[in-house]
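hey can u check if this looks right to u? its 288 residues, i copy pasted from the old doc so theres a chance i mangled smth
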Amino acid sequence: MWIANGWKDYEVIDTSSGEKLERWGDYMLVRPDPQVIWKTDKKHFGWKKWNGHYHRSNKGGGEWEFRNLPEEWTINYKELTFNLKPFSFKHTGLFPEQAANWDWFSSLIKEANREIKVLNLFAYTGGATVSAAKAGAKVTHVDAAKGMVAWAKENAASSGLADAPIRYLVDDCVKFVEREIRRGNKYDGIIMDPPSYGRGPKGEIWKIEDSVFPFIELTSKLLSDKPLFFLINSYTTGLQPAVLSYMLHTVLDPIHPGTIEANEIGLPVKSNGLVLPCGASGRWTAKN
């Protein structure tokens, strides 16, 4: 498992009964987590003295309950600063486990000793975008949600990257990739975090089991003659690491032989030293 163990401002304190107790800077949140099917004694005071608790509803979804939690606050990861705020369906605007991938591709970018162009698709609030930009890459950030792209700009500014070479686009990722292919644009690194389900601007249905492999095939056409890396993330239960690996092997090996790895990503749990699984990632790296 690839473990995001470099955090100082974030930690999973404990897990029990379908929930996780987390510290986000100075504040403690209790949020549901479907992986947590075990029960513990909940000895940590944070289980009762939380600042925010997302309560699941039996009808689906849920709602937040707050105690002395600001509408927005920040936390740091190394040289990066992220703006947080609790919003729809338990999220805060950041997936801390992705730091394991940020560290990986940031090292590749720094060690390349050349200009690296990175494309970040389904880019959300820009955790990967600011990480790549801080490492020195030119980044194209694409997400269909206008609010998420605005949030990514805020994260870049907070991280001292307001003037960094980041291009922000509110666009459907499939349509954007198709246009980039026609324009002849190329990228040295590609990052994608496709959703399990979604709809395009004209009602097109995105169902990851049906759509992700053709999309990887399509996006691979944007790789440069000297590509550096390709990263795909998945929070969909059916897409196990082996599936991500097979897709990357099938698409990339014939055109860009390299090293392919896939694994779960996770976060250490302070109370017991175990690791909470938080999805999976597949990585392709160019051969030296």
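Residues 2-84 form a domain with the Immunoglobulin-like fold (CATH 2.60.40.1180).
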